[in-house]
Write a structure and sequence with these properties.
The complex is a heterodimer of chains A (164) and B (267). Chain A has 164 residues and is mostly helical. Chain A has 7 helices and no strands. The longest helix of chain A is centred in the C-terminal third of the chain and has 30 residues. With 267 residues, chain B is an alpha+beta fold. Chain B has 5 helices and 12 strands. In chain B, a hairpin with a 7-residue loop joins β7 and β8. The chains are: A mainly alpha (164), B alpha+beta (267).
Chain lengths: 164, 267
Amino acid sequence: MGRIRQVLLVLALQVLVLDYIHLWGYATPLLGVLLVVYTPLDENRIVSMSISFLAGVVMDMFANTPGVGAAAMTLASFIQHPLLVMMLPKDSDEGIVPSLHTMGTPSYFAYMAIMLGVYHAAYFALEVFSFVRITDLLVSMCSSYALSLVLAMSFESLRFMKKC
Amino acid sequence: MRVIFDWIDRNLHTLTFVLLECVSFVLLFQFNSYHGSLWFTSANSVVSTIRGWEAEAISYVHLGTENRILTERNVILQMQLSRLREQLKEATRDSSLTERLMAERLDSLRMLDARVIGNSITKRDNFITIDRGSRDGVRPEMGVVTGTGVVGIVSQVSGHSALVIPVLNSKCRISCRLRGSGYFGYLHWDGGSPLIALLNDIPRHAVLKKGDAVETSGYSSSFPEGIFVGRILQVRNSSDGQSYEPVIVLSADLAKVRNVSVILGKR
């Protein structure tokens, strides 16, 4: 249940709030991928990929970008499991939920940076036809990535502070 | 046989991944190539309902601006009214033929008011979603206007919402002419400022200057002739040098548009 609520909250945040932010006309935070980032290690991979795909379809409906978010979310979900296994110490708990608390700051930051990076790269690569100039695309991608990373880490440290 | 099943079992998540990506790409290319994917856009009923609530909540914030625009519009109309009264007094009982035709034309249009419930201006291909659909009589290819000028053309409709391709979309082409001289071209937008568009295919021998008015030509079924589009900001040559490509300041600010009218057709 907690997982479903989390998925819906992240979706609502993306389509009702973040989709409207365009800092300097370029940077739009794309945090829908957080629901992939928070996937527990022991969740069935096929289930988590399907959840990510459906969430991507919903985000696309609101943003009028059919297929773009869905493809990027599915890719992020596909690499999430092996990446998490690689980042975690060998003796980690099987049902571990990735967070600042369970992974420690350096490896959690690296994990988040890679996940957001893959998602943004895929998303903007598929959006390539909606930009006139390639420089606009690169500026938009990099600034959105930076903004998303800052927002995701601040959000995470807030959660962390509450736990302490 | 067993080997095959084992292989499938071991690679099930990879196969799922490939399958889901294929579905995503089908959605992506289907949307870009033909009009049949309404369900996956913001014109589907669930999304448009949520967007409707959202627009309602946000519209309160903008009441001040809306009011100011309405007041300005009122003042302009008042001024026009007094000027027309004056002209009517001067003219004989029989007003000139063109004036009568113009009044009849505007009078003969059936319009439907609609509210904008989804809008974007920052992408290359922007879309507007409105809260009227096929049940209200909206059909694809109908023109959409606002109090200040042309907005766009309806692309897809569902029961109570419709997706509009505004001027700010690379696929939007609206046939326009220069008021007075009548030379025509088509209006298109190539990104950048949401207030600036270009008029293509104006012949080299046309006489144009900054500030000339641009209006719809009536050569398509979407818009009747004579609806105001904008004014020429700067006259420049097209990239091949064969024609003029004046830069147009659009009279309708699509970044702020909230109430629009759909042209249903002749009365």
